[in-house]
Target: Putative secreted protein
Amino acid sequence: GNFRRRLSCFPTVFATLLVGAICGSVQDTNRYVDRVLGVEMPRELRYLDPWISSNYNVTLNTTMKISAYFNPLNITGFRLAKRLGNCQNRRIGNRVNAACNVTFGHVVARANLTLRYTGRVFYNVGAVGTFTTIFSKFNATAQIGRPPFADLKLVLPLEASVKFTGLKNVPVTEALKKGFLKHLGDKISNFLVFYIQALNRAAQKAPFPY
Model:
């Protein structure tokens, strides 16, 4: 009778509410990630972007005996992160996960080098590595009512163009380019440890979409 009719209506009403909750949570998650990346992270990165290393020496290519003294290395652009498309919001038990694709489109590494190359020493060599768009995956997970834990992982290999100045017409070889770019990749991996620490602080300052 009436009970059966009320019961038969329940799945339809529940499905409607569920769809509404999912749509709302995606919008809330988009706003959350935009707040983390666009407002909180620039504040957290004020001492990390630009990231400036101490001076150091490194071998760029063992076979070709290429080494460089960095005086120093300067990396900029990680504060200019952007959300790519809609985020996902999943609830599993009492945990909520917010996931989003994030891009960095303006990362540049600059260095002043003393370069041992082709059996000679070159002083005041300028090196600039300009990265193509860096794609990454942002994740923030929280138990209901507790602060979130955030993480960020690169999803594609790093690619960059590189220019050297001050080599006095000595050609730039692939060995020098590859050695320099591999070293930049290693340094960015080191930097991301500090970036993720800042990301966790930022993720906890924005209203999480529980």
In short: DSSP finds two helices and ten strands in the chain.
